[in-house]
Design brief:
Elements (H helix, E strand, L loop, with lengths): L2 H24 L11 H23 L5 E11 L2 E10 L17 H13 L4 H12 L5 H9 L1 H9 L6 E16 L2 E14 L4 E9 L4 H13 L4 E7 L5 H8 L4 E4 L1 H9 L4 H15 L4 H15 L4 H9 L1 H4 L7 H7 L3 H14 L8 H16 L9 H11 L8 H13 L1
Parallel strand pairs: 3-6, 6-7
Antiparallel strand pairs: 1-2, 3-4, 4-5
Length: 421
């Protein structure tokens, strides 16, 4: 048979096949899924394309000719299909559309597996889902191989360049149990969340560690600097061991604000149930005061009332007062941003909703892989600057003179608005 005749025959078959598919849809059959219309359409299209590849290869190979056909199972996002693929006598044909040892098709299936994994589904759940909907049988190893494809993307993301200045940075930890050398060990993934000078929120990095400490935090800060970050105006943290000291040693101009909410929670752990309500009422006068001077007055009163009974609690407030009280110098709309780590805790809560079903993770890599995939879904929704950012950034530009430069186009817009008034 001549090449032209083969091509005409293929075209005729495809048209008939297409008509049949349209009729099946009109009869109410599903487009995708295990017994859907798409799978045979994909099979026919792939076989026609592979046939074309073989024709080109034979025309370029002197003395080479066909040598029958082989069969292979291919798993697609629309179901499993069996392909008939042509072979050549010399064995030199290397198909490009569907390679010789390829068992899954394209990004469609990979994307579905990654999407399910990022929503907290276990490998067993993913296996069952694919079998039920698409008739696909993927082993745990194959699913793991698909999820591992995100690792280069993760590494590229973790080494991406950062903005030179971040106005506010929050830091909080997620805790996991991980299987390591036959033992179950605790791991913490520290999420560094930042706001740039345009008011855009970004996850700057994910850092996994067994223990926090000054050395670990120095490594984190060094990594951020190596990626282009030059300055942080305010760092908001839970009283993480060594972090305040590390950030002040590397970025001495950065203000460290300890989370008031964490400090309150830690204090109430050491207050008896009977005293809790009365103690909290007096403590509110301290952290809700209008000025730092007023807060210090109420802190003195708190110590007079409760210091003898709870000396350790009052000592903690005194010891950390410098870092606890930074927010008093700012107006209300900035205070709300910095006196707690609610921003990053809210982000972490969204991650925990997905990861809470994972009682034990198989490895450190699996932890980072899952957290990154979940975080990526969350970050996709961050499309707008923070509310009232124009007001916030102007106040901060005054407080941190020379360290924060407003975009000239923004200044022109503000000037134009004032002129209209």
């Amino acid at each position: 048979m001549k090449k032209g005749e083969n091509k005409r025959s293929a075209n005729f078959d495809w048209q008939d096949f297409e008509s049949e598919a349209v009729q099946r849809l009109k009869d109410g059959e599903e487009l995708g899924g295990k017994d859907g219309v798409l799978a045979p359409l994909i099979k026919r299209l792939l076989e026609a394309s592979l046939e074309g590849e073989l024709e080109v290869h034979l025309s370029e190979s002197e003395g080479n000719r066909r040598n029958g056909k082989g069969r292979k199972q291919l798993k697609t996002s629309h179901g499993a299909i069996e392909l008939e693929t042509g072979r050549d006598r010399q064995g030199s044909f290397e198909p490009q559309l569907v390679k010789k040892r390829q068992v899954t098709l394209g990004e469609g299936l990979d994307a579905k597996v990654l999407s399910m994994y990022a929503r907290g589904m276990s490998y067993e759940d993913i296996q069952g889902h694919l079998e039920e909907l698409y008739g696909l049988e993927l082993s745990k190893g194959q699913i793991s191989s698909i999820t591992d494809k995100v690792l280069p993307v993760l590494e590229e993301w973790r080494s991406r360049p950062l903005e030179p200045v971040y106005v506010i940075v929050w830091l909080d930890a997620l805790h996991f149990k991980v299987r390591h050398d036959g033992r179950i060990e605790n791991r913490a993934v520290y999420c560094v969340l930042g706001i740039d000078q345009h008011g855009n929120k970004d996850l700057l990095g994910l850092y996994l560690s067994e223990n926090e400490g000054a050395r670990f935090w120095l490594q984190v800060l060094t990594d951020l600097q190596n990626r282009g970050m030059e300055d942080i105006l305010i760092a908001c943290i839970d009283n993480l061991t060594g972090f305040g000291d590390a950030i002040e040693s590397i970025l001495p101009k950065t203000e460290v604000q300890l989370c008031i909410v964490h400090q309150i929670r830690n204090s109430l752990r050491y207050i008896t149930t009977g005293d809790g309500k009365a103690f909290l009422k007096d403590l509110k006068k301290v952290y809700q005061a209008a000025t730092k001077e007023s807060a210090e007055y109420y802190l003195d009163e708190l110590e007079k009332q409760w210091g003898e009974k709870y000396p350790v609690v009052l000592l903690s407030w005194r010891t950390h007062w410098l870092r606890l009280s930074q927010y008093f110098k700012y107006p209300h709309h900035i205070r709300r941003l910095i006196y707690t780590t609610n921003t990053v805790e809210g982000f972490n809560r969204q991650i925990r909703k997905i990861t809470k079903s994972k009682s034990v993770m198989p490895s450190d890599t699996a932890v980072l892989k899952l957290v990154f995939l979940v975080a990526r879904n969350i970050m996709a929704k961050w499309t707008m600057p923070l509310a009232n950012w124009a007001l916030v950034v102007q106040q901060l530009a005054i407080h941190f003179e020379g360290r924060l430069k407003l975009d000239l186009s923004i200044e022109k817009d503000l000037f134009a608005v004032e002129k209209k008034k």
